[in-house]
Hints:
By secondary structure, chain A is an alpha+beta fold. Chain A contains nine helices and 18 strands. In chain A, strand 4 and strand 5 form a beta hairpin.
Amino acid sequence: xxxITLEKVQKKFGDVEVIPPLDLEIDDGEFVxxxxxxGCGKSTLLRxxxxxxxxxxxxxRIDGQPATxxxxxxxxxxxxxxSYALYPHMSVRKxxxxxxxxxxxxxxEQDRRIAKAAxxxxxxxxxxxxxxxxxxxxxxxxxxxxxxxxxxxxFLFDEPLSNLDAALRVGMxxxxxxxxxTLETTMIYVTHDQVExxxxxxxxxxxxxxxxxxxxxxxxxxxxPRNVFVAGFIGSPKMNLITGPSAGQHGAQTIGIRPEHLDVxxxxxxxxxxxxxxxxxxxxxxxxxxxxxxxxxxxxxxxxEVSLHHGDTIHLEPQPDKIHRFDADGxxxx
Amino acid sequence: MATQHSRSAARWMIAPAxxxxxxxxLIPLCMTLYFSFADYRPMRATFEPWIGFDNYVSFLxxxxxxxxxxxxxxxxxGILCIxxxxxxxxxxxxDKPMFGQGVVRILVIAPxxxxxxxxxxxxxxxxxxxxxxxxxxxxxxxxxxPFDFLSQxxxxxxxxxxxxxxxxxxxxxxxxxxxxxxxxxxxAAEMDGAxxxxxxxxIILPHLSRAITVVILIQTIFLLxxxxxxxxTTNGAFGTRTLTYLVYQRVLESQNIGLGSxxxxxxxxxxNIVAIxxxxxxxxxxx
Lengths: 334, 287
């Protein structure tokens, strides 16, 4: 079981309000991702749930039980840190055994759980090594192993993949997702990488300056971003946000068109511009187009076979049903 | 070419330092070695340049030799115990954020800047003195008989004085070690359900082990040659005669330079044995 409820939770450091009162409901077995730019309070929120920071006001409930005043160890949560926080002087086996040793579990049960976790995480051959002798990915797995053996109500991940190289990150992303499918335990995952959020989450919580901007499934956020911030944050490459007369034609302050919803047409089209940079990825090509009358270049995602180069003229037509309209407050218009 | 040039230039530049070092260290060592095989007693105008190992034999077989070795070990061991345990506690305390942290840290380091002779005199006259010492006042205030530290517990008194001087050193080294501990490790241990004492035992202490061995090594090297504190307080009486002090007495009080030199060479050999032993431990700990 791992149902976590935050009720009017607030965090202040001195006079600075890092997190204004917020409510959040995390269901049992959900994979929730907190995403936002750096300094948006997502890690603080995670630490509040973990109990490593004290809330200034409000209440945290885990499985319906008040947990606000419980110390971290009593909340039944396990955390995987950004730096892995492995104990360098202990072998992998002892690292994984540490929480069980602290709980006073008997040796047989410890060995059984270590063997099971090592098997699941491909660590069996490394159990007697020190963390210093392992690669980044292996250390990450040890940190996860140390969390698994406690059989916690929920896992908390604090940017666990940010210290890994790009290839390893994709691999670990899959492994964590698979782990979630096997364990079916609640997981809360903090990242600033919206790709990680989109690929892993059941539910994404977009944060900005401590405020929840939107909560929803990845596709909800993609299809119906509630405001300009979420629209610009979710999706890769970023959504083109256009203000001025072109937006006025749609009766909005700002319109947003995702790069993949712009068609390259032979002539005419709503926007005409020159190609700045063309990024050929093989499957797709991203064009950065300088459109007359717009400050920011527009990004277009075209088929990989479209052969346009720097300086070529390009005609663009947005798909009419895929235009997002936002009002003067940056909120989505129906 | 350039490297060869700079190499020979480097040799020339370090030459003066090497020269001074040789003059300062090798010449006294060689002279000590030379005297240790001689019967040299200037007050009696005796000088026999070669008497073989007689000095060594008489130094090693005298009852005061073994006693002084034991005293030295007790003294060094006692000081190490106090400074390491105290240093770890002080380091943990100073690591906590508090009001006036900078000033407190400077105050803690202060004893290290006091010269050994001065600190020994201060302790002797202001703290341990039976008539005027602060401890005597404290004892009488509690209605107890004043305790004459320097004659009743002389070894302990000297250990306290020297430990007070070296505590800042240990604290300083251990404080930097405490500060280099990754706070996420402590948080992880907290999440893993380790109470404060277990966090100290399983996370902080292993992290400090390297710094502790360094402190032990450096302090031992310096503590083997404690002299001023003994000279000023007890003059080597009441079982506070260390090996260093015994050598001093042989040379200057008995005016037997040959015997003292032999003792000096023996002390050098013993200190080197201890140093090699300690280096091994440190080497193991420093991977």
